[in-house]
Amino acid sequence: MCDSKTNYLVIGIGNEFRSDDSIGILMSRMLRQKLPATIKVAECNGGGVELLEIWKDYNSVFIIDAASSGKAPGTISRFDLNKETLPQNAFNYSSHSFSISETVKLARKLNRLPTRLIIYGIEGKIFEQGTGLSYNLESVCDALLKNLLTDIQ
Amino acid sequence: MKNKTIKVDYLARVEGEGSLLVKIKNNKVSEVEFKIFEPPRFFEAFLRGRHFTEVPDITARICGICPVAYQMSSIHALENILQVKPDRQIRELRRLLYCGEWIESHVLHIYMLHAPDFLGYEDAIQLAGTSPEIVNKALQLKKAGNDIVNLLGGREIHPINVRVGGFYKIPSKQEFNKLAEKLKRAQDIAIETVRLTSSFTFPEFEQDYEFVALKHPEEYPFNEGKLVSNKGLNITVNEYENYFREEHVRHSNALQSTKNNDGIYFVGPLARYNLNFDKLPDSIKELAKEVNMLPPCNNPFKSIMVRAIETLYACQEAQRIIEQFEMPEKPFVDTQPREGTGYGCTEAPRGILYHKYRMDANGIVQEAKIVPPTSQNQKQIESDLFSFVSKNINLPTDELTWKCEQTVRNYDPCISCATHFLKLNFVRE
Question: Which residues pair with A18 in a beta bridge?
Fold first, then answer.
């Protein structure tokens, strides 16, 4: 499946103490057990410009983050950043650190986007303080894994 | 137009959630409110009942940008109760960790939050579009700070290697040396940053400020010193509450501080710089002279230059500490619980950060008080806005709004840190 010239990185983003915002982190931990060992998996608590450092040695990067666009909780949206831009308001916006969409814009200006960047947004419902998700992680994980493996092939 | 309202519902490029309201009536400023509506966070309440050894890991969570400051002020206050004094090398490593935080925090603010104001850009993304080489260098410089905190703190954000009495583990000399290599390049970028910020055009604006900062007899302050001001204040940290008090105002979830009940004062890089310039190395003093930034400086818009100079200092100081470092016998001194009250104050990137703890004989925290720099600057920010708008009342509203936001950003407010407490009154009928 993975060709030898490509190195793959999966990054889970989120805050594990903000309910459904933790999905990216929890998912990356689950995927680490299920994905081939050649695919690296990283976690990122803050997002922002740190992502540029995390992905700098990889040419095929998959980001998993919580999304909030009004769809049913657990719905997976896929964005190929080499072909499209992110919807402005779907991902967590912060006034003090760079959001994913801002980071992608910055990386594009700095010519520091990976050759291939795909973002999976997983719809959340509750973003209050607390641990645990408002929906079943396992069911989303299987669907996401299927998507990821298709992308990697 | 004689009456108008300047309203910014969500301040951009500041840390946390705040807004701004300026009312103008009959061509005079009638009301200014720097509103902090980020929810209160109750850290002081949930420190109560925790063992003192847990405190630095809890306070580090107050801020993702300046966690080291919260760890440092808390461990100094607790060591004040425990009557322990870590040896010189531990003290040096604490300064090193603080250097890392200053670099990270200052560079973030200079390039990502504040520079766009001076260059006429909406944000750093626009800046990256026209000058990618500047933003790439900024990220490289910030990375040097991250690397220090990562190595010595155990991770880049919310470090986990700090404990009362010292550190859990000290990295090897070899690991420190690798860091020193990166710091050499960082210093070059920091010098370029000083020169770049000195080329900006600054609004003509000065006030008669009372600057308050730590002052140490031998060094530019991070962890220790007396609290001094340019208007005669000269007190020890444990006298802080005799001179400063906090009050709750209706429009802010963060308490506001005053000196001697009604005095507004200014903390942060500009205060530190004006009061401690003599402690900077000669090479930095020379550079400051070259870029026409000798103290005293009463123009808060020039704080961006001071942050650049302090970033350079932090890079040089970090390198000095690494070069002179000798591994201590033990990474920490032993501590035993002791009943009492202790005080600590250190220089967070945004200014003095005061902590007080009362502990029982079993080492359980009974009371905690934390006064962040942004709480202390709130009234000063409102005072600046009042004066700035009064002097520039005829500017077009769009431009005036932009300048008002810039006035707030001069202080690099950390709103999340400041919203730590809200007094709640229950009325039962």
Answer: A130
